[in-house]
Design goal:
The chain is mainly beta. Helix content is 13%, strand content 36%. The strands form two sheets. A four-stranded antiparallel sheet has the order 1-6-3-4, with helices on one face. Strands 2-5 form a two-stranded antiparallel ribbon. The longest helix has 12 residues.
Amino acid sequence: GVSYDLGGRGAKSLPKPNYNSDETGFIVVRIYVDRSGRVIRAQAGAKGTTISDQQLRQQAEDAARRAVFAANPAAAEEQIGTIKYTFVKTR
């Protein structure tokens, strides 16, 4: 699953990372969002992350960069939030 926190701004699109691993747990990605709602930077491994697999973290970062949030002209030039990806074994 996917959850996020961006100071009350709504999400328009929250893509999920590709997942081809037996790892289970969480990857929290710190995101930096501009006023138009685009993610301009993403860093996996924020507080709450329980998965150390670098490939999975990279996939989470890539998915986070594709996320789109509601535009907010009154927001800070760079608003910081998080996206939390929950990985569960499907097999």
